[in-house]
Each structure stands twice: as structure tokens, then as C-alpha cells.
Specification:
43% of the residues lie in helices and 16% in strands. Strands 3-2-1-4-5-6 form a 6-stranded parallel sheet. The protein has 2 domains: 30 residues; 178 residues, Isochorismatase-like (Rossmann fold, 3-Layer(aba) Sandwich), CATH 3.40.50.850. The chain is an alpha/beta fold.
């Protein structure tokens, strides 16, 4: 009996270790900042607004406990984002929605279909104002990992990206850096961007500014 119990404990420990290793590899695959062809410079300013990853499974009623900090910030944050969307509409500026969708079945099992492809979790948070604009999905942090985004920007001669959404430490950060790699003008609307921790979010603001992104408040976006 003792040997069976020890064997079971070892099996459980090995299984837990394998799960942690799998998740670690999964997140490494998701991470990274892409490079791409640099856009033409000295062209008339043609902006678009990006709304990144404001989804039911992160800020909504079905969000898991590990996104609690996002849920707690969500009400004033989404109102700020909606304010930027209204301004963009008034300026005939394209509004581009980005959604994270996970297609990995093992990850979906481990995390109860969190942002799984086609799930309610992966849908846009219903509080987000949805206007006529494209919705691009991605399976990595960097929104440019979906080539359709870059194709849309090129087709519409867009060279200036206003960034809103979440998370400042992950998807917004990687997308800003990927845009800067391509020499887009990038403006981060800081009070329409949130992260898991305020101090780390503010650290990212300074990092983006140092990398030549412009920082703006929602009330300055006119």
C-alpha cells in the first residue's frame, strides 16, 4: 500500500511538473516582437486607432480569478477606451479591434477554455463600443503576428497608430514595439491602457516614450 501511495505521489508530481513545463513553453511561443518592412516616411499623417484584447474572458463577467486586477479596473478603463472610439469616429479614423484567440487544445483544457477559439471568453467585452471597423484575431502577443493587420494598414496607407487596450506588460507592449520596428508613428493613450500592476504599467509608459512613442491622455485625443 505504501509503495502504491508513493507511486501515486510521484506520478502527480511528474504530471504537475509536465503541466508547468508545457505552459512555460506555450507562453514563450506566444511572446516576441516581430519585424517587418519599414513603411514610407515623410507621408501625410494617416492615423488609425487600435483597441487591443478587451475581451469577455479578461475584463468581463466570465473572467477567471487570475485576471481579477483587469476586471477591477475595467469600468473606468472601458469608458476611456469608448471615449477614444467616439473621437476616432468623429474624425473618420479607422478603428481596428484586436482579439486574442488560443487554438492550443491542451492549454484550453488546463485553463478552462480561457480565450479559446470561438468561445465566449474570446469575444469582445460587450461594454466596448463596436463601430464599423475590422476585427483581427491573433494567437501571439504581437498583433502584427497576424499578417492581415499589416495588409490592412498598407492598403489604407495608415502610418500612425493610436494604441489602447491591454495588457501594458504583454500584448500592447509587443504591438507597440512591433509598430516602432516598422517605423510607424505610435501614440499610446495611457489612460486607455491597463496592466496587471500600476507601477509596472507606468514603467512601460517610460519605456515606450524612450523608444520614441508619444504618450497622450484621452482628453488630449481630439
Amino acid at each position: 500500500m505504501k509503495k502504491i501511495l508513493i507511486s501515486l505521489i510521484i506520478a502527480v508530481v511528474v504530471l504537475i511538473g509536465a503541466c508547468f513545463a508545457y505552459v512555460s513553453v506555450f507562453f514563450k511561443k506566444m511572446d516576441g516582437v516581430s519585424t517587418g518592412p519599414k513603411i514610407a516616411q515623410n507621408q501625410p499623417d494617416k492615423p488609425a486607432l487600435l483597441v487591443i484584447d478587451i475581451q469577455e474572458g479578461i475584463t468581463g463577467k466570465t473572467a477567471p480569478k487570475f485576471t481579477k486586477s483587469m476586471v477591477l479596473q475595467s469600468e473606468p478603463f472601458i469608458e476611456k477606451v469608448n471615449q477614444t472610439i467616439r473621437v476616432a469616429q468623429s474624425k473618420d479614423m479607422p478603428v481596428i479591434y484586436i482579439r486574442q484567440e488560443n487554438t492550443d487544445k491542451i492549454y484550453s483544457i488546463l485553463f478552462n477554455n480561457f480565450l479559446a477559439e470561438g468561445s465566449l471568453s474570446a469575444a469582445l467585452d460587450p461594454r466596448v463600443a463596436v463601430v464599423d471597423g475590422p476585427v483581427f484575431t491573433k494567437s501571439k502577443m504581437d498583433a502584427f503576428s497576424n499578417p492581415q493587420l499589416e495588409e490592412f494598414l498598407k492598403a489604407n496607407n495608415i502610418n500612425h497608430l493610436y494604441m489602447t487596450g491591454l495588457s501594458a506588460m504583454a500584448c500592447v507592449d509587443r504591438t507597440i514595439k512591433a509598430a516602432l520596428n516598422r517605423e510607424y508613428t505610435v501614440t499610446a493613450i495611457t489612460d486607455a491602457i491597463i496592466g496587471e500592476k500600476v507601477e509596472k504599467t507606468e514603467q512601460k509608459y517610460r519605456e515606450w516614450e524612450k523608444a520614441k512613442a508619444v504618450l497622450l491622455k484621452v482628453d488630449q485625443f481630439r
